[in-house]
Design brief:
The protein contains four helices and no strands. The protein is an all-alpha fold. 19% of the residues are buried.
């Protein structure tokens, strides 16, 4: 059974930091792009932590859909709605207003 190594635990802590930052920004009424950035980072780190826990090589990508597909390949019980991952990626792709 895969274990939560110190490296996996560190990635989870980093994800928690991004979650916390997103909540601060949302509470402060910051633009959604900033909030979504930290949420995307949180999810990415959690996906990568789970890949590490499962002893799967972690690719150098920020693509949540790609990471989710990898997780599904090694864990048939894995489920993440692609449409939600794509929506988050789309929001981050919108250029900042000047």
């Amino acid at each position: 059974m895969a274990e939560r190594t110190p490296l996996v635990e560190a990635w989870i802590r980093y994800a928690e930091d991004d979650w916390h930052d997103s909540q601060i920004l949302a509470s402060a009424g910051r633009n959604m792009r900033s909030v979504c950035f930290h949420l995307q980072q949180c999810i990415e780190k959690l996906f990568k932590a789970e890949l590490m826990r499962l002893e799967v090589p972690v690719p150098k990508t920020h693509n949540l859909h790609e990471l989710s597909k990898l997780l599904n390949q090694v864990d048939a019980g894995w489920s993440a709605r692609s449409i939600d991952l794509n929506r988050l990626s789309f929001l981050l792709a919108i250029p900042k207003s000047t």
